Amino acid sequence: MKAAAYLTALFALVAVFSSAARAQAKAEDYPPPKPAFPGQTNAPTPANPSPALKVETIIPRFNGPWSLAIMPNGKMLVSERYGFIRVAEMNGFYSAPIAGVPDTKIVAAESLHDVVLDPDFAHNRMIYFTYFAPPPGETPGSWPLEYFYANVWKASVSERRTMRVGEERVARARLSDDERRLENVEVLLDGVNRRIVFAPDGTLFITGADRFRFYEPSYDGTDHEINDPDILRNFTGRVVRINKDGSIPKDNPFLDQPTVLPETYSYGHRDPEGAAINPTTGKLWVIEHGPLGGDKISIIKPGGNYGWPNVSYGRRYNGDPIAGTGATQKPGVEQPVYYWYPDIAPCGLIFYTGGMFPEWKGNVLIGGMGAKSLIRLVLDGDKVVAEERLLKDLNQRVREVQQAPDGSLYILLDDGRLIRVSRK
After folding, report:
1. Which residues share a beta bridge with 79?
2. pLDDT digits (tens, 9 = 90+) for 135-178
């Protein structure tokens, strides 16, 4: 099989745990859920559409790119899910893999994910990244899908808790002066490995997916409610908050509850693959995959419960209601600002602040993998008032979006390309 065809097949297989998956049903086959308030879904197109866009290919082929970070010198760090971080330049050059990246296990949706720069990178050259570490003694590399799903689902909870599957992890390191290796790699926290966001106060938010293997749901959502608060707060997807050195901030919301992990900031998330600070309010916004439908964007509150696996605007992959009831609202569960049904399969999120597209100022830009587009949300305060889908003519899954200093966009596509989007 040619490399491109192999990668395409692999990404299609990995998508089974994302809201892009269609194992037995399609969201379109079922009535859409009712929103909790007007404008929570299906916003109209903007009255003034975006200007014409110029798309340039900078790098034609990365191997499973996941995220990028723009360095002060204009170069970019690009993470690849197969365990590599590379340096890319605007002239089309990209380096051999940087040495010193910890061993990574690639299985299902688990792999090397985010890479971000310390806010003081120009002086300390520190970077932060998330990955899935293999168990001690296991050779790093790629495993078939069933080693993370089928082999786990068929086991009892007690058996699952002794399985050596791997560990979600966030780490930091210094990028060497010659940009060829990581130095002084330090693991900061286990249990989360999706997006990293620096808060205005210098702490780190890290998003983590549902750790279903530590409790009793099936891969496509439970057919009953999970009522144990310790399970909900410790094992469903979380947003965590730590200091830059991995220590716990003294104002985290659950420090007075000894059965809750101290880093936990919010819980009840499913698979949050995009996060950003709203520069106007300083609040953290997170996007996440629903199951069959129900992808959503939420404003994160300290101690907030975001519903999974008891509340969702999606369905199980076989079409059954979530938790047996199909509840979209429950007391004590935070509502999303906006949701999609059918899916967009979101990954990557920024608030646009640049000058190249002044009509986008304050808008949210989201990578749409299932939607095969860059999604623009127009806001009025915290309310979504319009939605526009851009780059649809590329017919490619949009994995990551970042804003360049000049206001243009750097975007990673799932076909391996790094593109630059500017005003035509």
Report:
1. 67, 85
2. 999 999 999 999 998 888 888 889 988 999 999 999 999 999 99
Give the list of residues 6+ apart from residue 201 with CB closer than 8 angstroms, or none.
Answer: none
Please report where in the chains the tokens 């007075």 appear, as a residue. 256
95 lies in which domain range? 3-423
Strand order in the sheet with 204-208: 196-198, 204-208, 237-242, 264-269
115: domain CATH number?
2.120.10.30
288 beta partners: 296
Spatial contact of 284 and 302, defined as CB atoms under 8 Å apart: no
Provide the pairing of β-strand 126-133 with 115-117: antiparallel
> How many residues belong to the chain?
424
Residues 6 or more apart whose Cβ sits within 8 Å of residue 154: none
- List of long-range contacts for 223-228, beta carbons under 8 Å, 24+ apart: 223/316, 223/320, 223/323, 223/324, 224/323, 224/324, 225/310, 225/323, 225/324, 225/325, 226/309, 226/310, 226/323
Q: What is the number of domains present in the chain?
A: 1
| CB within 8 Å of 253: residues ≥ 6 apart | 264, 265, 302, 303
pLDDT digits (tens, 9 = 90+) for 274-310: 999 999 999 999 999 999 999 999 999 999 999 999 9
